[in-house]
Amino acid sequence: MFIDHYHLTEVVNQICINAGTKPGDAQQVASLLVEANLKGHDSHGVQMLPVYIYNISQGHLKPQQHAELVSRTGSSLIVDGLTGYGQIVGPEAIEMGLEVAAELGVAIVALKNAHHLGRIGGMGEQCAARGFISMHYVNVVGHPPLVAPFGGKQPRMVTNPYCCAIPVSGGDPIVLDMATSAIAHGKVRVALNRGDRVPDGSLIDHEGNETTDPAVMFSQPMGALSHFGKHKGYGLALICEILGGALAGGWTSQPENPRPGTIINNMLTVILNPDILGDKELFQTEIRAMLAYLKSSPPVAGVDAVLIPGEPERIARKQRQTEGIYIDDNTWSSIVATANSVQLSTEQINEIANTVDERRRPPIE
Ligand code: NAD
Fold first, then answer.
1. CA 40 / ligand 1 centre spacing (Å)
2. Which of 139, 202, 209, 360 could cysteine-pair with 244, CB 3.0–4.6 Å?
């Protein structure tokens, strides 16, 4: 079914409140999950809600937790997410970093123990909106590995995302935001739920043979995701594991660490004020000229135009704001079952999904 982003936000908001989240926080979690759907990343949108609510019931996600500053040394901050919602503790940790970067020109934020941070690009956009460059190195722990190292048959890491966002004056930021696996794990689940295959080169079965069948990740013996770009993606995933996991989080995927069946992200973020490194006019002139030069490349057959990282998400957002967000039947059923598990009846959820006061609907940007 297609559902309007505003109604979908209300559904998620109400489920989070019933699961013990304070209303303002629930609204933020709901908005950021739906924002991932709007930006075309269903894998990191409301599809994750059943996992979040289950993790609350297991004590793995603390719905009222906020980020805590552990220590500050000069421009460096250590922040503990204390297994709060990533959509709450992530932006809070970034906000602490932005304050330091505003003062000193640079900030390094080590965020540990955040429950799933969702779309990392949201935090890149948070920095870019304030004129700062940011780089985010993230690892994923708390459950068994899913991605095989280049040349290996068995998984050893998770999908370790990397993000770099750069503000562009008078325009939209450059936002490179990606899993280091060939596709995000959530996209394998989306493909399974929709009865689709995944792209070539994304998966191997448990014997190491390439396959496009998403079911190999949800049956035993389990297969593995592959990295993007072969050894190069594997190398970047390792850097995220070391900087995000070992340095910021003190918790990598190595087997002596706990795997209680949750999703924890550790993230090392570098926030930089571009003005401290040189001529800010020249920097922006060069960016704009370079982006125009890239876009002037004639597209190959089957491609409409050369795009800049971050642009596909903005195109998806515009389209989905108008057309609605497609939620497949399996995902909707699991959202309804999740609502039921927190004492919201199917009738109540259907009513929220369909009858939100239209006068409160935000204008389409
Ligand atoms: P993707 O492959 O769809 O896009 C990756 C990047 O490439 C984006 O910056 C996008 O703007 C850019 N891009 C896509 N098509 C392009 C084109 N034609 N021209 C130029 N640039 C283009 O993203 P993904 O790797 O599937 O990741 C999806 C999301 O999953 C991300 O938001 C990521 O942060 C998130 N993620 C989160 C976790 C976690 O543990 N929290 C783990 C993995 C991934």
1. 10
2. 139
Q: Percentage of the chain with pLDDT > 70? A: 97
Q: Where are the domains of the chain?
A: 2-194+229-280+309-360
Residue 365 pLDDT greater than 80, yes or no: no
Angle between helices 311-323 and 23-38 in degrees, nearest 10 = 110
Q: Which of 204, 253, 206, 202 is nearest to 227 (CA)?
A: 202
Residue 231 has, within 13 A of its CA and on its CB side, a CA count of 1
Going from the C-alpha of 342 to that of each of 33, 329, 336, the distances in angstroms are 19, 20, 10
Which residues contact residue 51 at a Cβ distance below 8 angstroms, ignoring those fewer than 6 apart? 116, 263
Ligand 1 pocket: which residues have CB below 6 Å?
41, 43-44, 116-121, 140, 159, 161, 163, 175-179, 183-184, 187, 265, 307, 309-310, 312-313
Predicted confidence at residue 359, as pLDDT, reads 45
CA of 317 from ligand 1 middle (Å) equals: 14
Name the least confident of 205-209, 253-257, 358-362.
Answer: 358-362
Q: Are 148 and 234 within 8 A, CB to CB?
A: no
CA neighbours within 13 Å on the CB side: how many for 317?
12
Measure the CA–CA gap between 332 and 148, rounded to whole angstroms.
31
Question: Is 90 exceeded by the pLDDT of residue 364?
Answer: no
CATH of 2-194+229-280+309-360, one of 3.40.50.720, 3.90.870.10, 3.30.1370.60, 3.40.50.620: 3.30.1370.60
Report whether pLDDT(13) > 90.
yes
